[in-house]
Amino acid sequence: MFNSLSGRLIILTTIFVMIAEVLIFVPSIARFREDYLNNKLERAQIASLALLADDMLDGELEKELLENAGVFNVVLRRDQVRQLVLSSDMPQAIAATYDMRDNSAVVLIRDALARFVSPQNEVIRVIGAPVRDAGLLIEITMETDPLRMTMIDYGIRILILSAVISVITASLLFVAMRALLLKPIKRVVGDMQNYAAAPEDARRIIVPSASVTELREAEEALQKLETDLTQALRQKERLAQLGSAVSKISHDLRNILTSAQLFTDRIEMSEDPTVKRMAPKLVGSITRAVHLCESTLAFGKAEEPSPTLTRLALRDLVDEVIDGEVLAIGDHDVEIVCKVPAMMMVRADPEQLYRVIANLMRNARQAITATSQPGQINIEGREDAGAWYLDVADTGPGLPPKAQEFLFAPFQGGARKGGSGLGLAISAELVKGHGGILDLAWTGPDGTCFTITLPKGDGTLPDRQLDT
Fold first, then answer.
1. 0.70 exceeded by the pTM?
2. What is the pLDDT of residues 427-459, one digit of tens each?
3. Contacts of 186 (CB under 8 A, 6+ apart)
4. Candidates 3.30.565.10, 3.40.640.10, 3.40.50.300, 3.40.190.10; correct CATH number of 307-466?
């Protein structure tokens, strides 16, 4: 019960009501003491008036008047004359004097609490104004023990009343909260559990029905979340089925195209001018088709293997990629400039990092050659205390808006005409496996620059870099 919201609600309500009652009790007990002392003064005044009306009263009657008033002595001041009207023997000396004629609330509360917690029986003098202007003042002496016992009795009754009020208030609040809030919350929890059992089933999506504004807003937000999740799961299932089919088709198509590639190699040996002119284009088309099939198969795997991190010289790896690109450049006027420090060491998987750099350089080369204009590819390495950076920039025409929008999304259209977009998607995944990021640094009419960021230290990047 104590771990449930309803149980804690009852407990907290009871506690808060009790705290409120305590705050009420303190001034209440002070008011009770003030009324008690004023009542004593009034009764003593009545007893003294009885004696003044008949000054022939014997000692026994005078003693009875004092006992009924609950005081030892009564002093009246009338016409500037102080007169001891009733008197008896006091058991001890007067310990304190209290003037009830002009006391502030703070003084009344202080004196009441002091008397409430003090168990010692004392004799005190109380001064007050007579009722109905029957003199200037009236003084009495009395014991404090009856006052304290009466205050304790009053306090116990207040405590019992507070407990009853707390229990009733907590019960009423619990019933109200259970009907207005707890039951709707339990219903929402039940809907969430029902949806979690089969999130693909759209019939299990929650239907908002709460009358409480805040709870209905939560239900509407949950409904949108569940709707989006159901759609995403359905799309994921369709993509998984499509990916499986595409992988099978790409596997068989790659074998067919490989055979066709062998035939085109023989065709290139022909002396026919027309065949010699068309053969390179045919070879290029088939090569691109084979590459597309291989990329599709690579991306269709469940996941890339985890990188085997080793310390390696980044300049040597970049030079190896450049050697392959130089052969691919052929007669095109494309210059490759490497500004990677010779002594720069990074922690990475050599094979996977080679694939990433090769893909970026191939994209840069193809962007330049597509313009039929001279161009340059710049590779620059740098580092700071937290990470290593490798920039691959080109002087091509820049990325079109659609390519920027779906830059790292597979099958969303590549950065160049006819591209599948798999290269950058695979590269981003490989860099992410290293704990780093592949980011588009800038693009425009003057070219494009991608930045590979690999973390140092514990293998994590600052939040500001991960958010880019």
1. no
2. 898 899 888 999 999 999 999 999 999 999 755
3. none
4. 3.30.565.10
Could you tell me the residue ranges of all domains in the chain?
5-168, 213-298, 307-466
- The pLDDT-based confidence of 467 (bands split at 50, 70, 90) is very low
Look up residue 99 and give its two tokens: 């003037």
pLDDT, one tens digit per residue, over 199-213 is 878 888 888 888 778
